[in-house]
Every structure is written in structure tokens, then in C-alpha cells.
Design a protein that fits this description.
The protein is mainly alpha-helical and 71 residues long. It is 28% helix and 6% strand. The protein is elongated, with a radius of gyration of 18 Å.
Length: 71
Amino acid sequence: MEADPQRLKAFIEKWNLLEENDYDIQMQEQIEREHPLNMDVDVQAVLNGETLEHYELDPSRGWAIHRKADM
């Protein structure tokens, strides 16, 4: 992942990130959305050209799925 140094500098200055701040949760979320290195990932599993919807999870939400198998 790469971001333009000037864009990063502008982001840091806008949010005054070099100083101690007590941002509320909404402000922290806004900062995260605007971060130049933030990624919005939409992962889909495709089999034989067809998108699998096995888990039927809401794509507007974030999910972390962990599977473990002991042998």
C-alpha cells in the first residue's frame, strides 16, 4: 500500500495528529475513513464463474471469519 507523502502530511495536519487528542468515537471513525492508507475491501468467493453466497452475510457490515480444524 502506498500514499502520496503530501496527502499524508495534509491528513496529519488537518486532524492535528502530532498532538494528544481526545476524539470521540464518531470523530475517530471519520478520521479512519479519511486516512490515505485506509482500504475498503470487498472480498467475494467465486467458483466456476458464480459468486458464492454460502454465508449470506450482510455486505454492508464488516465480518471476520475464522475456521479451525484439528487433525
